[in-house]
Design a protein that fits this description.
Blueprint lengths: L5 E5 L8 H5 L9 E7 L12 H8 L8 E5 L18 E5 L19 E5 L16 E5 L15 E5 L3 H5 L11 E5 L6 E3 L12 E5 L6 E3 L11 E5 L19 E5 L17 E5 L19 E5 L24 E5 L19 E5 L24 E5 L11 H4 L5 E5 L24 E5 L19 E5 L24 E5 L19 E5 L24 E5 L19 E5 L18 E5 L2 H6 L8 H4 L4 E4 L1
Length: about 625
């Protein structure tokens, strides 16, 4: 073991009793070791370890060539003297060391250290005075730490759940090279950086402030935010009523995320035209977006979340001063209970490709008005994701022609949805032929999928979950109109309480790579007649997952014919008692069996009755 290379993880150090036992690991001579992780595993009821851990860690001195060191749940008060000799260390992580007061010896020199992470060390008081090479410093849950070292190279600083005293000690000179700053979970903080003029941080590109409920100001003076800022994220600061600068002056700003009552939109202030991503969260008084949104010519993504007073995106759809910018690519609206319409003219957004709407119960229709082009989506549209539509009963007419580029459709939590289309015999209804992914989740009254699914020549991914009224898997022996397309690659079937077997014709899915069957309590066998050649799985199958099916007593007989199968996972199928008589395919590389007590017993290594059938498989997990 002297020549061990790369990374070494040592856990369970709470069982090592003294320094002599620790020295037996002989880490000091392992000169090729680059990364070392040392962990004590203890719960609240165990001894704190402050007596024995000091000696154990002293005895685990690594070679001076070590590059990365991770120490977790060490119970000592201070770190050993050998820390001073690790001059090649580039990364140190110290986690859950609840008794530690001093991290490094006072004379410690760490000239190569680039990244330091301190997590949940509540008694830590002192850091070295100078960390000249550190570019990333992350501190979380170190409330007694009162000051930071000199950080002339710092680029990224994260201070979370830290004491106010440490934050107030920061000055502009020690942050002059800072590019990314995150401050969060500081309950008593009123002024973010009392001795720092944010405008003087001319390298700052990302600023995040979250969960500081008493915060009233971002910094001293009226200097404002630096124009170099590219990303600004403010979350959970209800007492922050204004920004220290006019946002339109932030000419480099690309992403803005605001979770507060800040007056983002007013006659006195506008947003910079450089912004590409705008996120508005929990603005209780926002009733509509302002005039002039079209001027945000770089805006690609707009996210609106939890704005209970939002009734429409714009107060006057007929006024040309209102509208979305033409370059918008994605619009996401979540949990806006009073939103009753989307704006007119969306069909003119020629770059628009993605619409996500979740929990907007007053939105009754899906933006495709048969008699009004103003309510249609653009032809370029590719992704539609809708959930929690209590009044949606079907998808609209003419989806094939109005959304010819639609590739992904997700529908979730629509209790009134009985069928995707009200009239399967009408050619005006149907899914676009370029559809690649269809996911339907938690639609308790959905009884069927539409006819003509076999014509969706681009469909590769199909997921149907928690649709209890859907009794069959769309493969009608007498009617080709109900078959699935042969292009299907991934099929997921979950929570089908009435499914008792897979249908005929599964072999025709000649592109199927992955099949997942989960939580089908009435599934007694994958196929009703294993001796009938019309039943069976396609030989192209690579991944097969079966779980949460309480009644199947066996796997299909002809499993050995699945000559492409590499991964087989069976979990929570307690009645499966044995593997097929002819065994499993020789191509199988991974077998996982869990919560199947009868099968697990037969597959025990060497002495299980089915062990000869699986001993050729490289990776077997029978837990």
């Amino acid at each position: 073991m002297r020549n061990i290379k790369g990374r070494l993880d040592i856990s369970g150090l709470e069982d090592v009793q003294n320094i002599e036992a620790a020295k037996e690991a002989n880490l000091k001579d392992k000169k090729y070791l680059n990364e070392l992780s040392l962990e004590w595993v203890r719960d609240d009821s165990s001894q704190d370890g402050r007596v024995t851990d000091d000696g154990v860690l002293e005895g685990l001195q690594p070679h001076a060539n070590l590059k990365k060191l991770h120490i977790k749940s060490y119970g000592g008060v201070s770190f050993p003297s050998w820390m001073s000799h690790l001059s090649n260390l580039t990364c140190i992580t110290v986690e859950d060391c609840r008794n530690c007061e001093h991290l490094f010896p006072l004379d410690c020199q760490l000239p190569s250290l680039c990244k330091l992470t301190l997590q949940n060390c509540p008694k830590l008081q002192v850091l070295p005075a100078d960390l000249p090479a550190v570019t990333e410093l992350h501190i979380n849950g170190c409330g007694e730490l009162s000051a930071l070292p000199r950080l002339p190279s710092i680029c990224e600083l994260k201070l979370h759940s830290c004491g106010v005293k440490m934050l107030l000690s920061l000055t502009t000179p020690c942050l002059i090279s800072l590019q990314r700053l995150s401050i969060g979970r500081c309950d008593q903080l009123e002024c973010c950086l009392e001795k720092v003029s944010l405008q003087d941080l001319t390298s700052l590109q990302e600023l995040q402030i979250f969960r500081c409920p008493q915060l009233k100001s971002l910094g001293y003076g009226e200097g404002g935010l630096p124009t170099t800022l590219k990303s600004l994220n403010i979350d959970g600061c209800p007492n922050l009523k204004s920004m220290p600068t006019r946002l339109e002056n932030l000419t480099s700003l690309v992403e803005l995320s605001i979770v507060t009552q800040l007056p983002l939109f007013s006659q006195e202030s506008a947003l910079p035209t450089t912004i590409e991503v705008l996120k508005i969260f929990s603005c209780d008084n926002l009733k509509s977006l302002p005039k002039g949104m079209q001027s945000l010519t770089s805006l690609k993504k707009l996210v609106i979340h939890k704005c209970p007073q939002l009734h429409s995106l714009f107060s006057d759809d007929e006024n040309n001063d209102y509208g979305l910018p033409t370059e918008l690519n994605a619009l996401e609206i979540h949990t806006c209970p009073n939103l009753n319409s989307l704006p007119k003219g969306m069909q003119s957004l020629t770059s628009f490709t993605k619409l996500v709407i979740h929990e907007c119960p007053q939105l009754h229709y899906l933006f495709l008005d048969d008699g009004n082009n103003d309510h249609r989506l653009p032809f370029t549209f590719t992704t539609l994701d809708i959930s929690a539509f209590p009044n949606l009963m079907s998808l609209p007419k003419w989806m094939q022609s109005l959304l010819p580029c639609l590739k992904e459709l997700k529908i979730k939590d629509c209790p009134q949805l009985h069928s995707l289309f009200p009239d399967d015999e009408n050619n005006d209804y149907g899914l676009p032929t370029k559809l690649n992914t269809l996911k339907i989740h938690t639609c308790p009254n959905l009884k069927s999928l539409p006819k003509g699914m076999q014509n969706l020549a681009s469909l590769k991914n199909l997921m149907i979950r928690e649709c209890p009224q859907l009794h069959s898997l769309f493969l009608d022996d007498e009617n080709n109109d109900h078959r699935l397309p042969t292009t299907l690659v991934h099929l997921y079937i979950g929570a089908f309480p009435n499914l008792n077997s897979l249908p005929k014709g599964m072999q025709s899915l000649t592109s199927l790579n992955s099949l997942r069957i989960n939580s089908c309590p009435q599934l007694f066998s994958l196929f009703p007649d294993d001796n009938n050649n019309e039943y069976g799985l396609p030989t192209t199958l690579v991944h097969l997952y079966i779980g949460g099916c309480e009644n199947p007593k066996s796997l299909p007989k002809r499993m050995q014919n699945l000559t492409s199968l590499e991964y087989l996972s069976i979990w929570n199928c307690p009645e499966i008692a044995f593997l097929p008589e002819d065994g499993l395919p020789t191509t199988l590389r991974y077998l996982h069996i869990s919560e199947c007590p009868k099968l697990k017993e037969r597959c025990q290594k060497n002495n299980g009755r089915d062990w000869p059938k699986i001993q050729h498989i490289p990776y077997i997990d029978c837990s």
